[in-house]
Design goal:
76% helix, 9 helices, 262 residues, mainly alpha, 0% strand
Length: 262
Amino acid sequence: MDLLAITGLLLSIFLTLAILSFLFDDNPIYKFAEHLFMGVGIGIGTIEIYYGVFQPKLILPLLEEHRLLSIFPLLLLVLLFAKVTRKHQDWARIPIAFIVAAFAGVKLTGEANGRLLEQVRASMPDLQQLYETSGWWDWDNGGAGVISGLVLVLGLCACLLHFYFSARHNRPMRTISRIGILTLMLSFGASFGFTVMGRISLAIGRAEALLGLDQPNTLIQLGSMEVHRMTATRWMTVGTLLLIIVSIAALRRRTAPDSSTS
């Protein structure tokens, strides 16, 4: 490994432990990593917007292709900065109105076609096609079949009727409402479990990166002595940085003024 790769590895270890140090206490090292992350993210976003939007859609058409109509978006962009002045802040309403109207017009058709219609189509499966492909219940295909399609349709209808407050909730409606609540809880639980599994997968990936286990091909090519030396170096680096972070956090907690004695 060259010097640049070693520096990147140590920086990755330090920033990972700096973020995880928030679990112990809010400390300056965590603040530094947080501000560094926000700064780098904003910087990368600014560069991507400039080279992906401003340069091809505003600067190049105006300077090289001499499209005079590009002056109007540039003028609207300048009017946006009038929001920072109290005297001329009303001028900023013009570009904001254009942005809101264009976004609503584009998103209205896009969201309706891409999400609403697709969700309605997916929520009403073709039972005959399901029976031909998977039968009543196919264990090898994740439980697909006619029974799963009926459960999906009935659960969706129960959820919708649970939020239908115009009708009086008598005994049949209360039963359907409880089925809708059960369906919602199952859906929320599955979504929460999927989110937790995704976060755990990210944590495992970071732990493997810290210990050098994410590059098995590199470790195979090295000798056993060098592998043990690299592993020991990484463990010593991780332990040293963790000790420094915990020591600084403990020192801050010890030197902080006690609110009970004041």
